[in-house]
Amino acid sequence: MLLATQVRSRTAKGIAAEIGRLITSGELDVATRLPAIRALADELEVSPTTVQHAYQALAQSGLVIAQGKRGTVVRGAAESTRPPRYAASDKELMPLWDLTSGTPDPALLPDVGAALMSLAAQDTAILTSGYMEQPVLPDLEWELRRRWPFEPGAITVVDGALDAIDRLFRLTLRVGDRVLVENPTFPPVLDMIERAGAEIIGLPLDEHGIVPGSLRDALEMRPSLLVLQPRAQNPSGVSMTHERAEDLAAVLTGSSVLIIEDDHAGGITSASQVSLGSYLPDRVIRILSFSKAFGPDLRLAAVGGAADTIVRLDNARALGPGWSSRLLQHVLLYLLTDERALAQLANARAVYAHRRRSMVEALRREGFQIVGEDGINIWVPVANENEARIRLAMRDAGIAVALGSSFLSAPLPSEFIRITCSAISEGFTELAGAIAAAALPPRARTSRPAHPR
Asked: What's residue 276's pLDDT?
């Protein structure tokens, strides 16, 4: 089919609508490659920007996907299926040891009962009666600004870190844009980039964060976004050092790349706050999640940094939810300022650090080379991820782990699994031995060091 002959509109919205109807009707088969943006623009006698916007709209609706050098490909009618990397993490069995979740230990979450009861002492009509109030409670904004690692141009509150990332991607990404991400990184971020029709460029990590030379090389490809996790990186546990942040900021100076920092483990990480916003405040958006500290169901994250982007985000939300619940914002403010809640959080932070350290030491005794020193996740090299996952699941105890391939933004020379250690309170040696028996080749198991570090 010559696509240009089937498209009569000359507006981005019309072009997207007509191609969308060809896809949903089956006239354009799944896996069909759409014409290059410039080629279709020439045939339709419109600007490449018009076709680019049309392709972006199709990608956001889930009908097409940008596949780098392969171009833009028909995905098919949108289906109510889980994103591909979420589907890859689904468990077929209910294991005794579920090390896949990436979630905090419920027993270590601060008690929110007092925070909820504190609402009774408030004039809730002030919190609940207005549509046109500011999106953030003034006292909460003050507390957030006090905690921010750099002076933010603006701060808002949204419904969790992934909600923030999704909204920022929708504001800033166009079909064909290039996005720099860590390799490995959090799978939903990769799914969202692909859904937007953008191209993923993976940047290698070392024990200090993104490797500056790789970032310098990647900037030659003129990316539009850099997405990174500044501390307790998921899955590696790496935290960016002050020295590395300074080096990365020097590389980024002079570029126009917008930087999104996902501080997903705020509150439970032992690492200090390090931010590229200390050097490039007008180009950095930092997301501070409270899910690990106070529980996933709190559904709040703070977003602060470059004022123009934050204002655009708030304006876009005005056409939808408008704001995040001010009742929940009050609960969050209470938890951030209550001495008992803060003491419980400090205890959780210490327990998580002990559990991760104990698990890493046990794995190292078995011969595993583990990087990263923070957070609740451990990135474990294995001979074959699928074999390791199956063998662990079939053990008497039943151990579920996450496949490392779901976290990859670019190929790595070896395979990995990710384990979450937040709820492991004992049996570190036995668990490490089981993982080694399932995941390491025989030579590596027999040659493990007699005296661990």
From this structure: 98
For 123, the token pair is 């004039």
- Helix (H) / strand (E) element for 203: namely strand 199-206
Query: Alpha-carbon distance 289 to 18, whole Å?
Result: 40
Asked whether residue 60 carries a pLDDT value surpassing 90, the answer given is: no
Please tell me whether the peptide bond between 95 and the residue prior to it is cis, using omega within 30 degrees of 0. no
Nearest-angstrom CA–CA distance, 433 and 265 = 28
Residue 223 contacts residue 192 (beta carbons within 8 Å): no
Query: Residues 6 or more apart from 346 whose CB is under 8 A from it?
Result: none
Among the ranges given (51-60, 146-155, 258-267, 428-437), the one the predictor scored with the smallest mean pLDDT? 51-60
The whole model's pTM is what? Answer: 0.81
Distance CA 19, CA 4 (A): 10
- 203 — pLDDT class (breaks 50, 70, 90): very high
**CB-side exposure of 378: number of CA atoms within 13 Å?**
28
Percent of the chain with pLDDT over 70: 88
- Spacing of C-alpha 170 from chain mean position: 15
Task: Give the span between the Cα atoms of 194 and 59, in whole angstroms.
Answer: 8
- Give domain 3-74's CATH architecture: Orthogonal Bundle (1.10)
User: 3-state DSSP call for residue 25?
Assistant: coil
Q: Half-sphere exposure of residue 368, counting CA atoms within 13 Å on the CB side? A: 30
Residue 299 CB neighbour total at 10 angstroms: 16
16-27 per-position pLDDT tens digit = 888 888 887 888
**What is the 8-class DSSP label of residue 340?**
H
- CATH 3.40.640.10 maps onto the chain at 123-337
123-337 folds as: Aspartate Aminotransferase; domain 2 (3.40.640)
The mean pLDDT of the chain is 88
Q: What is the CATH number of domain 85-107+341-446?
A: 3.90.1150.10
Q: Give the 3-state secondary structure of residue 427.
A: coil
